[in-house]
## 1
Amino acid sequence: MTIGEGLIIALLAVMSIAAAATVRGADYDAAVNAANKRDYVAAAQEFQRLAGEGDPRGENGLGVLHANGLGVGKDEKLAAQWFAKAAEKGHRAAQNNLGELYLSGSGVAQDYAAAEQWFRKAAAQGDSDAQKNLGLIYAAGLGVDKDYTKAMDWFQRSAKQGNAAGQANVGHLFRTGDGIGRDYLMAYAWYGVSAAGNYPGAPQFRDSVAQYL
């Protein structure tokens, strides 16, 4: 799904299992370790144990597994329910994940206003993916007035935290000149930073603007 001129969006391709907060509890450690080893059945069992105790980390983890069909049957509706439980408790990764489901209409009715609401909650807690997603919403005018200045602001917040997708999108806006004025040198630089973070397509975008330098 491509939004605007070359803007990159990859919804639900990879969702973060871990929140930024310090990891506590043997069950959560075990779940993350199992997921990292691609033993998703074991991860699901540990996340289920946590979720049964009302732990939002377990709820978000189950949402991730169900959204992607890892160790459990793929069920985006159930994923949305788990994300919602964790999001209501303030879990920022779950808030972003729920926003992505609303944005794409996966497991829930597509609702740009709800997506923007959840992205904003997560972004306020410093979630770089949510900040990038707010940039995409403003760049495309999804449920909000199209505003490239606001899009650039959110992309830059994400990019400064090292988010490779946010960095690529900063590069896109410098390349197109939308909302900030065209600057091929800055586009080249941001694409290069994104490429260093192994973002798909960033090396090609970087090379495509090199001819203008």
## 2
Amino acid sequence: MEKFVEEFATLSPYDSIFVDNQAAIEFSQNTDLFVQRYTCPICTSNMSEKNYSRAADGIIWRCRMKSCKNNVSIKANSNFLGLNVPTHKILKCIYAWTMNYTNYQAKHLSGISEPTFIKIKDRIQEWLHVDTTFKIGGEGVEIQIDETAICNGKIIIKTSSTHDSNPNTQWLIGGIENNQRKNLFLELVPNRKASTIRDLLERRGKREPLFQQMVTSYPSAIKSFG
């Protein structure tokens, strides 16, 4: 997920992945949203990508074994398996969700119905909240906390001069252990208020760690946390 978030944050809403489905699939595979290789669940042979006009994406995984020829969605092993929606429209939905678009705005951006967008939005939230109870840190383990912001599809370089109320701004807060394990978390948050950061640390950090690289709202959040 981290690789996808990092790459997605650098995109413009006019990038090719939002209009060209092949580019969208390649991006999804290169950022681990989709798998790049797949083994047939029936005969365990390797599968290959094949054009298939009846699929929403126009491409599928097909078993190389002539006696099998099993077909599997190109979205196999992803949170978006089973959605009869082209990948470039799913990426548009992810963009709309990241920018906090209304359902009305999102359905027009992506060219899908509102019920379909709501279904995709539920999948996005399930995907981003995997392992949200996993805590990092512990006694003697130092944790580095950092932030980034995305506005209109672009990363904001100087986050210290960015206000939470700026329109179309989405904040991400991450933490990583300063040791060989490098356990980490990365979450979308609505703002950088002390209460928001405190709640995040309550869920994702153990009480013993030391924190580094604190921004304005962190000291009071960490004081109340520890």
